[in-house]
Amino acid sequence: MNLAKVLGRVVATRKEQSLEGLKLLMLGIAGPDGKLSGQSVVAVDAVGAGTGEFVLYAAGSSARQTQVTDRKPVDAVVMAIVDSWDIDGEVRWRKGDEA
After folding, report:
1. CB-CB contact of 90 with 32 (8 Å)
2. If DSSP codes are grouped into helix, strand and coil, which group holds residue 2?
3. d(CA 54, CA 69)
4. Residues whose CB is less than 8 angstroms from the CB of residue 74 and which lie 6 or more positions away in sequence, other chains included
5. Integer distance in angstroms from the first to the last C-alpha of the chain?
6. What is the tens place of the pLDDT at every residue in 38-85?
């Protein structure tokens, strides 16, 4: 699993038929401090995430192991919306605390 922030949506009106109806999100890959690395990935949304939320995503063959992405040609899937994280007992980020 990887940490990322939802930057926005990706719209593709023409795509492989098995991808019809799937919401695509542009994710900015984040470090443990929540800062974006400058790298990004497009992922299928399996949980209803929205712009600005931190999420966990899986990549590679693991991305095809959700009900939404089973047997679909995807390489990344958002499978959790993050509420908070801590490191060594110190809360580093909590949903709703962002400025």
Report:
1. no
2. strand
3. 20
4. 19, 22, 43, 44, 63, 64
5. 26
6. 999 999 999 999 999 999 999 999 999 999 999 999 999 999 999 999
Q: Which tokens belong to 33?
A: 């401090």
Secondary structure (3-state) at 24: strand
Instruction: Please give the DSSP secondary-structure letter assigned to residue 14.
Output: S
- Distance from the Cα of residue 76 to its chain's centroid: 8
Domains and CATH numbers, the chain: 2-94 (2.40.50.220)
Going by C-alpha positions, the residue among 24, 99, 35 that lies closest to residue 57 is 24
The pair of three-digit structure tokens given for residue 71, joined into one six-digit string: 């047997």
Secondary structure (DSSP) of 52-95: T-EEEEEEGGGGG-STTTTTSS-SEEEEEE--EEEETTEEEEET
Question: Which residue is associated with the tokens 């590679």?
Answer: 60
